[in-house]
Amino acid sequence: MDFELGDRIRIEKDGNVYEGIVMPTTTDHVVVKMVSGYNAGIDPEGATITLLEKAQPKASAKKTAEGKAKPSKKLPKVTILSTGGTIASKVDYRTGAVTAQFSADDIVDAIPEITEIANISGRVVYNILSENMKTEYWTELAQAVAEEIENGADGIIVAHGTDTMMYSAAALSFMLKTPVPIVFVGSQRSADRPSSDNAMNAICATKVAVSDIAEVCVVMHDSACDDRCAIHYGTKVRKMHTSRRNAFQSINSDPIGYVDYSTKKIETILPYTKRGTHELEVRSTLEPKCALVKFVPGADPDILSYYVDSGYKGIVIEGTGLGHVSTDWIPNIRRATEAGIPVVMTSQCLNGRICDRVYDTGRDILKAGAIEGEDMLPEVALVKLMWTLGQGGNLEEIAAIMATSVENEITECTLK
Q1: Please, which residues bridge with residue 41 across strands?
Q2: Is 401 exposed, middle or buried (0-12, 13-18, 19+ CB in 10 A)?
Q3: Active site residues
Q4: Which residues form the active site (predicted)?
């Protein structure tokens, strides 16, 4: 066949036409990445294949003598910390892999618009799929952020996989008092797809990183269109769709504001901590032996016994409605709290507030020692409990902190 990896070809077979870039394959089929971003594998037998365009030779990156992106003295300094995100991901057509290249030059090469906003430097903290995140990685990330701020960064961008980004954003919200913006950003679709959101999200995140919003926040697409990104509190955001670009939404809260992609202007609608308000403070100790348990009808109450007997230090229950479990779970809740293990009630409903004073079951849950999780998301309650236990204190002190808004995780009046 007169084509190679990376060439653009047209395949005509059985009345269908496929056009795209030739991708690697381990079968006899020809695999092309089409304009839609999806791959198609076609058996070449009986097909007409036309070469449309040869692959362009890979250009070498232009570098300064120091091997870094050339800075501008007039622009603020922003550090992009990579945890395995896709801001500067590229397709290697020899292997078919989407890889993240995270030198400053690679970032600037992939998304050159950010050099008009800030002087960019890059640092790899770790390179993992976000489902492989662990509590000790949050500690490493918090320390890396603190180091960059101490070294003079005016803003931090954390490139993170989207699946667990809300956990990490919540963790850093509790672990760091920050004088500068700390912005989590990711991409729902890889850079090789025409519908990729990586560039827009990164550009909007950079605008927030040089803004006055000194919060740990998440910046992602706000709609199905390329019009604006939303700025979410790190403790109020959740991924609500598996693949849509506007998957991230603020729950029980509005976003802090929005970044208009065409004008690059920021509009804020909620209060936020302003740049320079706080001195840098790192409070990174966590208690990893905490569990998030989802109650379902008929679930065995011995599920709680397992965590009590296995040495867990805290339990968050994702209950039904206003924060309920079946009555046969209540003795084991009491057993946990009497053993000094805090039990926090949250809701599977996500929207709305816990209130265990309406029905008899809820009142019995409170008598057993459970703590109402107010309107916290279950995963945020879990991370907050890990952090609260890491700071020390008795059960009464822990309960008081869990019921108090520390980093915007509890709203005074939940939205209807």
Answers
A1: 31
A2: middle
A3: 86, 162-163, 239
A4: 86, 162-163, 239
The predicted model scores a pTM of 0.82
For residue 370, the model assigns a pLDDT of 96
Amino acid at 360: D
**Binning pLDDT at 50, 70 and 90, where does residue 90 land?**
low
Maximum CA extent, the chain? 76
CA atoms within 13 A on the CB side of 201: 36
CB-based contact 304:319 (threshold 8 Å): no
C-beta contacts of 394-400 below 8 A and 24+ residues apart:
394/340, 395/337, 395/340, 395/342, 395/369, 398/342, 399/342, 399/371
Q: State the CB neighbour count (10 A cutoff) for residue 257.
A: 20
- Residue 19 three-state SS: strand
Which backbone phi and psi does 166 adopt, to 5 degrees?
-65, -30
- By the 10 Å C-beta count (0-12 exposed, 13-18 middle, 19+ buried), 307 is classed as buried
State phi, psi for 77 to the nearest 5 degrees: -100, 125
Residue 106: pLDDT band with limits 50, 70, 90 = low
DSSP assignment letter at 306: H
pLDDT of residue 60: 41
Q: Which long-range contacts (CB under 8 A, 24 or more apart) does 371-375 make?
A: 371/342, 371/343, 371/344, 371/345, 371/399, 371/402, 371/403, 372/323, 372/344, 372/345, 372/403, 373/316, 373/323, 373/344, 373/345, 373/346, 373/347, 373/402, 374/403, 374/410, 375/252, 375/410, 375/411, 375/414
Q: Which helix (H) or strand (E) holds 106?
A: helix 104-110
Model confidence at 162: pLDDT above 70 = yes
The CA distances from residue 120 to 114, 263, 349, in Å, are 8, 21, 41
List Cβ<8 Å contacts ≥24 apart for 250-253: 251/350, 251/351, 251/377, 252/350, 252/351, 252/352, 252/353, 252/375, 252/377, 252/411, 252/414, 252/415, 253/408, 253/411, 253/415
How far apart are alpha carbons 303 and 293 in whole angstroms?
Answer: 8
Q: Give the Cα separation of 216 and 213 in Å (integer).
A: 9
| Helix residue spans in 112-197 (DSSP H) | 135-150, 165-175
Distance CA 340, CA 192 (A): 51
Could you give the angle at which helices 302-309 and 330-338 cross, rounded to 10 degrees? 20
Give helix then strand counts, H and E, for the chain: 9, 23
Residue 139: both structure tokens together: 């500690």
